[in-house]
Amino acid sequence: MSIKRVWQGFEAVLHALVLVMSLLLLFTSPWILIGRQLTERAGFWDLFHVYGGLLTAMVAVLFLIKVCKGGQWRLFFPWLIFDVKPLLSDVGGLLRGQLPHSGGKGLISVIEGVGVILLLLVALTGVAWFVAEPANALTWRHYHIMFTHGFIGFIVLHCLLGLLHIRDFFN
């Protein structure tokens, strides 16, 4: 089996893996008791959160590669090349009561791109918290929690947009 075929198979499950790991980490996070660093008395959920989070950080980077592969980044991050006309068109349509359609470089794709950025920020700050000196760890913890709250908002919005996508099948 070639590396390309293995990657294609892995690509097919990346979105689901990001979803499952993110939800597991989010739903179990109230049970973790980590301040500055992981201690030798850390419980199962603390260990799961840290090492599951490190795994999810690696998966998030692979997800970014998948999203950006073959020029797809232009769909999710069109503002990087100042291509904002489809986004502004969708926002204008919303103001007139028209729901945006999925696909293209419009509002829904840009929101998905923001979700990828938030996922990476959660991952980056989690890794930084893990490797930080104890004196700086609480700062990284604060940023990790802040970006996590943004990512939770994105997940809710992403689910609502998924319902809009289902609507597109019937039009």
Radius of gyration: 18 Å
Integer count of domains: 1
N-C termini distance: 41 Å
Task: Report the structural category.
Answer: mainly alpha
The strand count comes to 0
In the predicted model, the low-confidence regions spanning at least 5 consecutive residues are none
Largest sheet: none
Average residue-wise pLDDT: 90
Shape: globular
Task: Provide a count of the helices.
Answer: 6
What key attributes describe this structure?
single chain, 171 residues, mainly alpha, 6 helices, Cytochrome b561, transmembrane helix, Di-haem_cyt_TM, transmembrane
Fold and architecture overview:
- This is Cytochrome b561.
- The chain crosses the membrane at residues 12-35, 47-65, 106-131, 143-166.
- InterPro entries: Di-haem_cyt_TM.
- Keywords: Membrane, Transmembrane, Transmembrane helix.
- With 171 residues, the chain is an all-alpha fold.
- It has one domain (3-169).
- It is built from six helices and no strands.
- It has helices at residues 3-28, 44-68, 73-76, 85-95, 107-131, 134-169.
- Helix 5 runs antiparallel to helix 6.
- It is globular and about 55 Å long.
- The model has no long low-confidence stretch (mean pLDDT 90).
